[in-house]
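subagent[fold] <- orchestrator: predict structure for attached chain, return tokens only, no commentary.
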Amino acid sequence: MFRLLHLVVVIVCAMGGVAQGGALDEICDDGELATLQPRYERGWRDNYDNALSLVFTDTERSRFANVRFRLERRVPDSEPFGFMAGGDQVIASVASLKFLEDVAVAYTWLDMTGRSTQSLAD
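subagent[fold] -> orchestrator:
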């Protein structure tokens, strides 16, 4: 798991300049994003309610009681890392979540089949 997290951090850092240009805003098809959006929304809410909030202290639970998750299909000029938060709202891009899911699947497949994961970093 640590290796996967490390990979995601490397990709985020490496693509920081590219993602700001907006050229990757259309990396996923609208139809696919529309299909994935409800599943990702359920997953985020379920993880928050049944995993994250359970380890919060009473103070943290109170502080985050009104948090809202909003999943947009895309966050313009931020893809494939369209994530932001402010106040009581967390915004995530379905396209960005799909990108990270694809990276995780690619990494897992390469690792499990004995191939080098260096191609993802490259």
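orchestrator: received. Logging for downstream: Residues 3 and 50 are 25 Å apart (CA to CA). The first strand starts at residue 68 and ends at 72.
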